[in-house]
Amino acid sequence: MSIGTRDLLLKEAETLARTRGYAAFSYADLAERVGIRKASVHHHFPTKEALGVALIDGYLANFQSALSDVLEEETSARRRLLAYSGFFSESLRDGLMPLCAALSAEVVALPHSMQARVSTFFDLHLEWLCRVVRDGICDGEFRADIDVRLTAHVLLSVLEGASLVAWALKDASRLTETFEQVVSGLAARDSR
Q: Global pTM?
C-alpha cells in the first residue's frame, strides 16, 4: 500500500524537524522533498502550525502505543526502562534527534498550540516513568527510598541530554551505557 501525500508530508516534516529544527524548514522544502507544488502542501495543511499540531498529535499517539507495548511485553522495571531508552538510541542511529528534544529546543518560538503539545509530550514521558519506577519499588527491584517523581525527571533528563550530546557528536554508542549506569543506581541491594 502506498503512503498518501498527507502522511508523506508528515513523515518529511518530522525528519526535517528532527534534523534541522521546526523553524528551519519551509513549505517549499516540503514540496521539494515530496515532489509536489507548494500549493498542494497548503491544501493538506493550511498553516505550518496545523502541520506541526498534526505532527505532534500523530507522534504522541504512536508513542503512547509504544509505551503500552513495553508495559505489556516487559515484566521488570529495569527491562522496561532499558526498552524505553531504546526509543532514543534507535532514533539516533537513524541520524535524528528525538522529536521532543528538537521541539523543546525552540519551544519559545513555537505557536501556543504546539507549545502545549510539547508539554503534554513531556508529561506523557514523566507519567510513564513514574509508573515504572513506582512498580519497581513495589516489586522490590528498586530502592524504597527513591523519590518517584524526581527519579522520573532524572531518567528523562539523562536520556534527553545524552541524546543531544550523542547527536552533536554523531555517536550514539554512549547513550545506552550512560542510561544503564543511572538505572543500576536505582537497584535495591537484594537485586544488584
A: 0.91
Say how far apart CA 129 and CA 80 lie, in whole Å: 9
DSSP 3: P
Query: Within its chain, how far is the Cα of 38 from the centroid?
Result: 29
21-60 pLDDT, tens digit each: 999 999 999 999 999 999 999 999 999 999 999 999 999 9
DSSP 3-state of 20: coil
- Note the CATH architecture for domain 49-191: Orthogonal Bundle (1.10)
Spell out the residues 6+ positions from residue 26 whose beta carbon is closer than 8 angstroms to its own.
none
Q: Which residue has the cell 506541526?
A: 52
Domain boundaries, the chain: 49-191
- Alpha helical stretches, state H, 27-145: 27-34, 38-44, 48-73, 77-93, 99-104, 112-138
* C-alpha neighbours within 13 Å on the C-beta side of residue 17: 28
CA–CA distance, 141 with 191 (Å, rounded to integer) = 6
Identify the pLDDT of residue 148. 98
